[in-house]
Amino acid sequence: MKDVVSWDVYLVTDKSRSRGRSNLEIVQAAVHAGVSVVQLREKDLSARDFFSEGRKIKNFLVQHNVPLIINDRIEVALALDADGVHLGQSDVPLEIARKILGPDKIIGWSVNDLSHISEEEASLADYLAISPVFFTSTKKDISTPWGIEGVRKARFITLSPLIGIGGIDLDNASDVILAGLDCIAVVSAIVSAEDPLLATKSLVTTVRKAKQARQIR
Predict the structure, then answer these.
(1) Structural domains in the chain?
(2) Residue 147 vs residues 165, 180, 181: alpha-carbon distances, Å
(3) Which of 29, 46, 101, 168 has the fewest CB within 10 Å, making it most exposed?
(4) Conformational region of residue 180, where left means phi above 0, alpha means psi within -120 to 50, and beta covers everything else
(5) How does 162-181 read in b/e, with b if 16+ C-beta sit within 10 Å?
(6) What are φ and ψ of residue 203, in 5° steps?
(7) Which of 211, 199, 206, 204 is nearest to 19 (CA)?
């Protein structure tokens, strides 16, 4: 489950953008289309409701060997025996998270500035999430977008798996992979799509082609 570099498309849930569809419906479509990993990110849910949502999704994901990552809430990740957590700059320090979760769980860490990648804490993460790559309305605490050049700089200074999130869609997915990302994380590009299954298939195909092209160069 820790083979993060092999991930292609990382789905982040957002029920408020799903056109009235449940998170489970979106996840099912995305998994059937080849999504690599799913993060449950519903910041407005109570811990009880978050756990209930997570249990339904995990029961489905386990059948398809797709990892479930929980955003922020370590206690829910433990209760669900999820595959890992995703933490931000203001969350529990990674050293503490690792002690709580143990060595086998995945821990992702959001980096909002190039300097974060050089911090000792970054070495404790299983992957680094560059955020946001482009402007996006899905993040309220918006930082200055990294852009393509920022992705290239990040790739130059670290060997850690890099995942990009924020404003990534079918039009720019290839560009960010060619710039050095190992995986793209998306919300609206799948969650808000008219056909989430078709949208996921297109993204997965695009990312895989870009990875192949990067190896050839």
Answers:
(1) 4-216 (3.20.20.70)
(2) 11, 12, 12
(3) 46
(4) left
(5) bbbbbbbbeebbbebbbbbb
(6) -65, -45
(7) 199
CA distances from 13 to 25, 40, 117, 154 (A): 11, 5, 25, 26
pLDDT digits (tens, 9 = 90+) for 125-154: 999 999 999 987 665 556 789 999 999 999
Q: Determine the Cα–Cα distance for residues 60 and 209; give it in Å rounded to an integer.
A: 28
- Helix intervals (H) in the chain: 23-32, 47-63, 74-80, 94-101, 114-117, 147-157, 173-179, 188-191, 196-216
Find, among 197, 210, 209, 213, the residue nearest to 34 by Cα.
197
Closest residue by Cα to residue 34 from 9, 58, 53, 56: 9
**CA dist., res. 1 & res. 188, Å (int):** 25
Convert the pLDDT of each residue in 38-48 to its tens digit: 999 988 888 89
* pTM: predicted TM-score of the whole model, two decimal places: 0.95
Distance CA 181, CA 48 (A): 35
Sign of the four-CA dihedral 210, 214, 215, 217: positive
CA atoms lying within 13 Å on the CB side of residue 10: 29
